[in-house]
Amino acid sequence: MSKRRILTGITTSGTPHLGNYVGAIRPAIAASRRADAESFYFLADYHALIKCGDPARVQRSTLEIAATWLACGLNPESVFFYRQSDIPEIPELTWILTCVTAKGLLNRAHAYKAAVDANLAAGEDPDAAITAGLYMYPVLMAADILIFGAHEVPVGRDQIQHIEMARDIGQRFNHLYAAELARQGVAFTLPQARIDEQVATLPGLDGRKMSKSYDNTIALFDPPARLRSAIMGIVTDSSAPGEPKQPDGSALFAIYQAFATPAETTAMRAAFAEGIGWGEAKQQLHARIEVEIAPLRERYEALMARPAHIEELLHAGAVKARERARPLMDAVRWAAGIRRLTAPLPQFVELAGEGVAGATVSADLHVEKEPPPQLKSYREADGRFYFKLTAADGEVLLQSRGFASPREAGQLSAALQAAAGDAASLARLLGEATGQAAAAPAPQVAAALAALKAAAARQREKKRSA
Predict the structure, then answer these.
(1) I need a surface site. Which of 19, 101, 381, 466 has the fewest CB within 10 A?
(2) Could you tell me if residue 46 is inside a domain?
(3) What would the pLDDT profile of 229-279 be if each residue is shown by its tens digit?
(4) With a threshold of 0.85, does the pTM exceed it?
(5) Which H or E element spans position 121?
(6) Which of 207, 213, 186, 288 shows the shortest CA–CA distance to 250?
(7) Main-chain phi, psi angles of 247, to 5 degrees
(8) DSSP state at residue 2
(9) The 374-379 sheet, strands edge to edge
(10) Angle at 282 between CA 279 and CA 287, to 5 degrees
């Protein structure tokens, strides 16, 4: 049985803090020890250029973050640990994917839309100070994922859209070059977002989510005295020593719980009820964090003193990662027509089994002259459920409003497909889907829904005949 490939990117534009450790680093390193998975961890220094214009900061952050993950227990011998910029196949694939990505898809990216909205609210030109890097971010992220055939990408809810876009882009390439890919027995694996509902979100000094954006972080490897000073600055309420304190909603208690054992958490909850003073509670929090962080800090400081050693580890990781990336990149180049004039068809793998670079291989890959339209349901960062109808070229023909439940969205999208050919019913259902007044469907919408309905009918007939 082949292993699941799990890929995690770490942007190199800041210094790791306790929230990064609890919410990302600690659970990711635990997951890296799974026997049934291959884990890819990369330092996303190309992505950092979008957020940070200080070259010294990017370099320093790359060193700090690499040292942090290694100090916290990541074993570069058992995982793929590399720097993004050391894999030239990634920017090359980014350009090839750019040439098949619909501009309309990128127009809907959350980060780009948020930047445009902020400009409009300030009375500026919609694209003022927005770089092409920000706009193209989803394509680079798609290349990061697709080049290694990742099955899963652990992300927060605000990143789900990027994984959906990576799927859209990979699927588009698979359709456009289906014949060439089928001859080589390769295709892009379409990734899934993995949301871990149990991952902790740590509050910062002011009670809000710990984030560099709020300037409320506690650095992971601050010296003990500086760590203690930061902890003493955690905002608490005005209850005096001896007065019962409410642990729920307390930033101090939440941070303690993230580091403590269940028994220690129970004891601290009892101490809150008994009126422990805030100063004493902060001293206990500092002591508990030190128990876990002190040995990691010692390893971190030793690694930071040996940047050449870290560079060697990253180089070795890049060599190992490129061994995976190159065969698939060769297949993609050949499929797209980037070939030597005398090059024969390369024989990468057989038409069944495990593909190059872990890409999914299908022995019966269906080759279509034109990819079909798609009706896709998904959940956005606002927690609501949506669906969209896209044309063969990726253009969005219909975007629904948000629904409270996946069932509600799914039933309405299914009803739209079933109503293809009935203009009156379609008009009514489109009004329900978009929250606008009922109107006759656009010809492209009607045609796409009819094509989906026909494809579903063919599939049912095929099953009956089997």
Answers:
(1) 466
(2) yes
(3) 999 999 999 999 999 999 998 999 999 999 999 999 999 999 999 999 999
(4) no
(5) helix 110-121
(6) 207
(7) -70, -35
(8) P
(9) 374-379, 385-390, 396-399
(10) 130
Provide the number of structural domains found in the chain.
Answer: 3
Query: Nearest 5°: phi and psi at 375?
Result: -120, 105
Same domain, 422 and 322: no
The domain of 254 spans: 221-304
Q: Is 218 exposed, middle or buried (0-12, 13-18, 19+ CB in 10 A)?
A: buried
Instruction: Summarize pLDDT for 413-442 with one digit per residue, the tens.
Output: 888 888 887 778 888 888 888 888 766 777
Retrieve residue 314's tokens: 């990253």
Collect all residues with Cβ–Cβ distance below 8 Å to 438 and sequence separation of at least 6. 427, 428, 430, 431
The CA dihedral of 254, 260, 262, 267, to the nearest 10 degrees, is -80
Q: Mark whether 46 and 185 lie in a shared domain.
A: yes
In this structure, what CATH number is given to the domain that contains residue 454? Answer: 3.30.160.160
Nearest to 139 by CA among 108, 93, 190: 93
Pairing state of beta strands 396-399 and 80-83?
unpaired
Size (the chain), residues:
466
User: Is the domain of 25 the same as that of 174?
Assistant: yes
If you search the block for the tokens 């809000």, which residue do you land on?
208
Asked whether residue 33 is assigned to any structural domain, the reply reads yes
Residues 81 and 183 in one domain: yes
Question: Which residues lie across from 41 on neighbouring strands?
Answer: 8, 81
Q: Does residue 67 belong to any structural domain of this protein?
A: yes
Q: Give the span between the Cα atoms of 356 and 35, in whole angstroms.
A: 21
The answer, yes or no, to whether residue 364 has pLDDT greater than 90, is no
Mean pLDDT, range 160-185, rounded to an integer:
92
Contacts for 107-114: CB closer than 8 Å, 24+ residues apart: 108/396, 109/135, 109/137, 109/138, 109/161, 109/162, 109/165, 110/158, 110/161, 110/381, 111/137, 112/137
- The beta-carbon contacts of 343-346 under 8 Å, at least 24 apart in sequence, are 345/183, 345/184, 346/184
How many contiguous H segments (helices) and E segments (strands) does the chain have?
18, 8
Single-letter amino acid, residue 3? K
